[in-house]
Structures are given as C-alpha cells and as structure tokens.
Amino acid sequence: MTSLPTGTPARKLGLVIDLDTCVGCHACAVSCKEWNTGGFLAPLTDQNPYGAGVDGAWLNRVHTYEMNGAGETRTVHFPRSCLHCDAPLCVTVCPTGASFKRAEDGIVLVDEDLCMGCGLCAWACPYGAREMDVGVGVMKKCTLCVDRIYSDSATAADRLPACVAACPTGARHFGDLADPKSSVAKLVAERGGYDLMPELGYRPTNKYLPPRPRRDACGQAGEPKLESAATTSGFLGWIDRMLDAI
Fold first, then answer.
1. Per-residue pLDDT, 154
2. Which pTM does this prediction carry?
C-alpha cells in the first residue's frame, strides 16, 4: 500500500468554491475536460460520443439541488471534483503506488504508468471524485491543472486551474490554504467555509462557501414578514374591512 508524506506540507494548494455565486453553467467542467484532454492526464476519452449512450471521463461535475429550509426554497449548484484531502484513503489503499500525495504542495495525483486500473481508490473515495477511463484502462482525477499552474511559459495570470480561469461568476478561487494571509484562506475565515463530510476524517483541502441568506427588496436578510390577517390597520386591515362590508 502507498504511504502519505510525513509532516505537514509547506503549501496546501486547493480550491474554494462559492455556492452562493455558482450558477451551474458547467463552464468549469467543460474547460477542465478541454484542458486535460490535451494535458497532464491526456486523453480523457469518451465512449459513443455521438450516440444515445454517451459516456466518458470527466474530472469535474456539477450537481443541482433544490434546498428547502428557513422559510425559503432555493436552487443550489454544487461543483464536485477531487478535494485533495490531507488524509486521503484513496492514496493509502493503492497497491502499486500509482496514487500519491505530493509533499511540496499537497496535490493528490495518479501516476498512469503505475496504475493497473483495479479501482480500489474509487471505492475508497467517499466523494466520487475518481473516474475510470475505460478507453485507456487507468484511473483519472482532478490534478489542479498541475501542468498549468507550474508552467514556465504561462504568465502569472494564467497559472490557474482551467476551471478557475473559465468561471464567469468568480465562484471558484485557487490558492494556498496553508497560508492564513492568502486570499482563499481569508475567504474561508470570513464566509465560514466548510469541509465536505468532515465526519469522515479525510480533512479535505478544498472548501465550500455556503449560500448567503437571501435579501428582500429593502435589503434586509430573509423574507419580508406579512402583516397578521387579524390586524385592524395597514393594507390587510383595509381589505378585511372592505370584505366585512360586503
């Protein structure tokens, strides 16, 4: 089985995803697919791409849910990819050492030359972040675009994961979560960023920012309260008196 790096990485590169501003456009998923099809994990193959049963390997997916509670109903779009956990069981179950966590930045990767496609890592990941690419017989996952963020030929502005660069609403943020002064760490602290399924103990590096409370037309959080139907004043009171007079 594969061992994890000893000690705490000096850097913990990861994503902070704002569920308040994500609109579910899937630009992150498409740009991820496009970049990685010709990048570090190339190819990301598709099966029957023009038929009714199209399938393939995607490293980033977006799920949409209807959320009810606190007197309101809202649609929440939930992007899902590898969370680059501090204690990833997907790494420690790998029998060949193909799945590994980098000591220098905490990124979890797969060495395709060592992967035999057994699927143990996918079974071990509770987030469903790994996908078997049946076209090449190896496991694929988010790499944080490691070939892009460390590219010597790219400008500093372009050294971002493809999903972050493509997001039209700025819902995806990238940086060093081990640095409390970084913009992503400050976002997590200010907005109450949280781990996905923390009770499992995997300690994800990626964080999610919760949706903000909705505001009414007057800028107040929450929905405006209606007057009591029993009131004798206000608009509802006027309607009540008019109905009584009929």
1. 87
2. 0.82
